[in-house]
Amino acid sequence: MSTFFLIFLVMILLDTSISSKNVQISEATEWNSTRRQLEKESCKIGNPIDDCWRCDSEWETNRKVLADCAIGFGRNAVGGQDGDIYVVKDSENDDPANPIPGTLRYGVIQEEPLWIIFDHDMVITLKEELMMNSYKTIDGRGYNIQIADGPCITIQNVSNIIIHNIYIRDCVPGGNTMVRDSPKHVGMRGYSDGDGISIFGSRDVWIDHCTLANCRDGLIDAVVGSTSITISNNYMLHHNEVMLMGHSDDFLDDKNMQVTIAFNFFGEGLTQRMPRCRHGYFHIVNNIYTGWEMYAIGGSANPTINSQGNIFIASDNNSTKEETIPGDEEWKNWNWRSDGDVMLNGAFFTPSGETGPQSYIKASSMVARPASFLTNTSPSAGALYCQRGIPC
């Protein structure tokens, strides 16, 4: 790879970044609107999720088509596709115990499937965790929607959840109070960790085109038997422990966990856990990593990590060139591979275990694009700026 190409790629990636962790709505969407417009001569760019729906100028009328566009292990998440449209109109009056109609909390706790949208730009500061019920989609397209400066989203013991086009930032712990999770049940919640999105004992979950930054604990954590998850097209920045996949080394039910992490942009100010994996099967495919401060991918308790078609750009710090953090001596027998990844600025991946594809079948969820795909198209991650009547 030529020096000119490396410098050109790094300049593009740095130019697309947001400079402040406390970005306002207008600034957050400017990155999307100026850097990620679709090519005029051809709408489809090779990202199978975006190619499925973003060329449709009538996306607002056809919102539920999105549920047919998921890929990877979370591809069966239908969210609220079979339900009514619910419109969030009230961003101010969050009541955790007795949610008010018109608020986001009232929509997500209902028993029936719902496709949840918004009627204006809003910053929602939740008083406690947003406890979601099954078969819900939170769809922020068309407006600039933030969940910020309070406890954030909890997906616990439910299924079929889609979270799309939301900016989630500055999440803090909550709890030790009454929180309703369905029309029929309200109960005492212990203290939460301050995750952006916490997935606990849940399945069929898809998180797509969100921007996440600067939360107290993880940006996205999946634990306690969660599985069938896709985390795609997200933009993550300014955070320490980005993603934890797996509850603990001793929690063996996480051996069934399968997670796809695809087409994400791991941006500036990230330290570690992109992700940190335990026990399960992890397909890490076609992401861009830039300048991690400790490591990019790590794990313990024998996870299978299938890294394919990613671009890893190390920082200039010579002590952080390795993108993986191996475990103890047992790690040598764990199956970690790098297949078609591009390593820049001295980045390197330490493989282990088996090299043949047969060992990675359970950690394969989609066909990886060549890493060159990521350099030949404009970055397309994070919350989108979608205008009615034109392709998003």
UniProtKB/TrEMBL annotation:
<keyword id="KW-0106">Calcium</keyword>
<dbReference type="Pfam" id="PF00544">
    <property type="entry name" value="Pectate_lyase_4"/>
</dbReference>
<feature type="signal peptide">
    <location>
        <begin position="1"/>
        <end position="20"/>
    </location>
</feature>
<keyword id="KW-0732">Signal</keyword>
<protein>
    <recommendedName>
        <fullName>Pectate lyase</fullName>
        <ecNumber>4.2.2.2</ecNumber>
    </recommendedName>
</protein>
<keyword id="KW-0479">Metal-binding</keyword>
<dbReference type="InterPro" id="IPR002022">
    <property type="entry name" value="Pec_lyase"/>
</dbReference>
<dbReference type="InterPro" id="IPR045032">
    <property type="entry name" value="PEL"/>
</dbReference>
<keyword id="KW-0964">Secreted</keyword>
<dbReference type="InterPro" id="IPR012334">
    <property type="entry name" value="Pectin_lyas_fold"/>
</dbReference>
<dbReference type="InterPro" id="IPR011050">
    <property type="entry name" value="Pectin_lyase_fold/virulence"/>
</dbReference>
<comment type="pathway">
    <text>Glycan metabolism; pectin degradation; 2-dehydro-3-deoxy-D-gluconate from pectin: step 2/5.</text>
</comment>
<keyword id="KW-0134">Cell wall</keyword>
<keyword id="KW-0456">Lyase</keyword>
<feature type="domain" description="Pectate lyase">
    <location>
        <begin position="121"/>
        <end position="318"/>
    </location>
</feature>
<dbReference type="InterPro" id="IPR018082">
    <property type="entry name" value="AmbAllergen"/>
</dbReference>
<comment type="similarity">
    <text>Belongs to the polysaccharide lyase 1 family.</text>
</comment>
